[in-house]
Amino acid sequence: MTVQPGFTLWGIAQESYGDGVLYVQVFEANRDKIKDPDMIFPGQVFAVPAGVVPTP
Question: Do the beta carbons of residue 34 and residue 40 sit within 8 Å?
Fold first, then answer.
């Protein structure tokens, strides 16, 4: 996924998994590209792991 203006890891997780708390999964999968999870930038390309399911 390519980061667009206004995107956050929380928002990416919310859109991808239905739960923003799972932003940690996106962060961990892209740790080599993200120095600070509160600062991502338009144009960055992140892997979004498949098969992540929110816990009930």
Answer: yes
Structure tokens at 22: 């799972």
CATH number at residue 2: 3.10.350
Structural domain count, the chain: 1
- The answer to whether 8 and 40 are in contact (CB under 8 A) is yes
| Secondary structure of the chain in HEC code, one letter for each residue | CECCCCCCHHHHHHHHHCCHHHHHHHHHHCCCCCCCCCCCCCCCECCCCCCCCCCC
Structure tokens, 42: 């338009």
State pLDDT tens for residues 20-46: 999 999 999 999 999 999 999 999 999
Name the pTM for this structure: 0.89
